[in-house]
Structure formats: C-alpha cells, structure tokens
Amino acid sequence: MNEMLEFTKVRELTNDYSQQKISKEDYRRLRKQLLEKIDQEMNGIKVIDDSSEQNFVEKFKSYFKSSDEEKIS
Fold it and tell me: How many domains does the chain contain in total?
C-alpha cells in the first residue's frame, strides 16, 4: 500500500468538500470508505458492518432489560 497515495486521496476529498464540489452526504460516505480501507490495510483492522453492530447493541440492551424486569418481579 502506498500511504502517500491514500493520504492524498483523503486530502483531495476534503478539498472537494470544502470547495462545495460534493455534498456533505457524499463526502461522509467517501471519507468513511477511504478511512476504513486505510485502517484495514495499515492496521489490519477488519471493518464491522454498522447494521450488525446495531443488532448487537439492541440484543445487549434487551438482555439487560429482561434481566432487570426479572429482578423486579
């Protein structure tokens, strides 16, 4: 991986957004993709799908909610 190429892409993306060449939504989506790619290639960190993370959080909350209700009963 060429780190300078990836960082140049981030800089260009930031410049495009600051010059209003792309929308905020596009900027955020593209920035997320670039940063995830950099993180995965440089740090070996696998990207977690947001939807599966949300499902985990909901299951976690549900578990403790049901446990608390059992303690009250």
Answer: 1
